[in-house]
Write a structure and sequence with these properties.
Layout lengths: L1 H23 L2 H5 L1 H6 L6 H27 L5 H41 L5 H17 L1 H30 L3 H5 L12 H11 L2 H7 L8 H28 L10 H7 L3 H30 L4 H15 L7 H33 L2
Helix pairs in contact: 1-7, 1-10, 1-11, 1-13, 4-9, 4-11, 5-6, 5-13, 5-14, 5-15, 6-13, 6-14, 7-11, 7-13, 9-15, 10-13, 12-13, 13-14
Amino acid sequence: MVLNRARRNFWLLARVVTAYIGAVIGAGFASGQEIMQFFVLHGRSGLLGAAVTALLFAYLGGLIMFLSVKMKSASYRDIFAFLLGERAGGIMDALNIFMLLGGLSVMMAGSAAVFEEQFGLPARAGVWAVTVLSSLVVLGGLEGVLAANVFLVPLKFLAVVAVSTAALCASRHLAQSSGTGWQGGGAGGHWLPAAFLYVSYNIVVPLAVLSSLGRMVPPVLGLAGGALGGLLLGMAVSLVTLAGLAYMPEASFCQIPLLYLAGHLGQGFRHLLGLLIWLAILTTAIADAHGFASRLAPEGGSRYRFCGIFACLLALPLSSFSFAGLVRLLYPLFGLAGLVLLAALLFVPPFKSLRKF
């Protein structure tokens, strides 16, 4: 009896952790380009930014799960209403629906680019691979999404850690590079704003995913899963930052910095990284489709499955545009919404708590 309960609690914890990590580690993270812009280009100070990022991800993950469990939420609509009020929350809700569809289109276009450039396969095959697999996962309902995350997310997380650690160990000029002040080209202009911008930019999809778990996770496991997922994300950010610093300035000129790092480790690591980037795209696409479906069908069931597949089909037309073009068009919108959410998450719950006393 005790063993069964412990096993059940472990899997619930694993589902929260992997859902969180899977929603954050997308193509930008797996390519190393996000980490390059927000952390590596700030030099050793970027490691301070990575530490702040870990704390923010841990706090926000725990907070989102706490609010979700307390409200017994099945979608992010309840969280938006609490944080922003009914009117502003409704506007953010509508915006978020379009953002999830846009993010799904971006992931499909990203899969097309990876299939064509990395694997030498037809671009449309990449689009349909993500469409079909995301639809199949959503057909399994919330349990199917969580089960897919438990299987796929550790693979891409371990691949990021493996490539970064191996590249770090193989570097012959780590001490010289990490001690050099690479400054001036990083996002935000300073390492501290960059850390906050990075978290705000990456909090929208995790909120949509984690808020759907409020009815199935006990409070303690929810808090622990959100905090642990955030700390693991921070660890991955720190490792990639260290590895990037070890190969500066050469790595800064690459579109896919982790691919440059993997190139120093042999062809096998290059293939591993190509698979990693595609897995990151797939799991983010699944998170987007799930966030869309759980918002329109919070009770789950056949309507949830229909909405998830509908989202995949609805995102198809936009996926015919280039990956880079979609990123330029949609990601500034994601960043703006993320800043609003980050500010609300940091200030509204403490303010409402103080008003009770």
